Amino acid sequence: MLDIPAKKVVESTKTDYSFIQSLYYTFISVTTIGFGDMVPKSEIGRILTMFEATIGIVLIAVLLNFSGESE
Predict the structure, then answer these.
(1) Using CA atoms, how far apart are residues 42 and 33, in angstroms rounded to an integer?
(2) 67 φ, ψ (degrees, to nearest 5)
(3) Cα distances (Å, whole numbers) of residue 19 to 25, 41, 47, 58
(4) Torsion over CA of 37, 15, 47 and 33, rounded to 10 degrees?
(5) What's the confidence (pLDDT) of residue 58?
(6) How far is CA 33 from CA 21, 26, 39, in A?
(7) Three-state DSSP class for 22?
(8) What is the pLDDT of residues 10-69, one digit of tens each?
(9) Domain coordinates in residue numbering, the chain
(10) Which one-letter DSSP state was computed for residue 21?
(11) CB of 11 within 8 A of CB of 44?
């Protein structure tokens, strides 16, 4: 398990991205498009991106499953 203090996580994830840029990055990560124009620079950023993409892919799959079901 990683032994990273919470303060270091917060300090290493500080960026100058706007809200719109953050939404763009989330959309590109979750949809697995991955243009490569924005990439996490720290180890914790990469780990958080893996979790975000995994959770997003699962949520999209669930949404598509529910939209495809008929009564």
Answers:
(1) 21
(2) -75, -25
(3) 10, 18, 21, 24
(4) -20
(5) 92
(6) 15, 11, 13
(7) helix
(8) 555 566 778 898 888 888 888 877 788 888 888 888 898 899 889 988 998 999 898 887
(9) 39-70
(10) H
(11) no
* Separation CA 14–CA 65 (nearest Å): 36
Task: State how far the Cα of 46 lies from the Cα of 54, in Å rounded to an integer.
Answer: 12
Phi, psi of 13 (to 5 degrees): -105, 5
SS3 content of the chain, % helix, strand, coil (to 5): 65, 0, 35
C-alpha to C-alpha distance for 71 and 67, rounded to whole angstroms:
11
Q: Is the pTM of this model over 0.70?
A: no
A 10 A CB-CB count for 25 gives 19
**Torsion angle defined by CA atoms of residues 22, 24, 25 and 29, in that order, rounded to the nearest 10 degrees:** 140
Contact indicator for 50, 29 with CB cutoff of 8 Å: no
Q: Record the tokens describing residue 14, joined without a space.
A: 């500080």
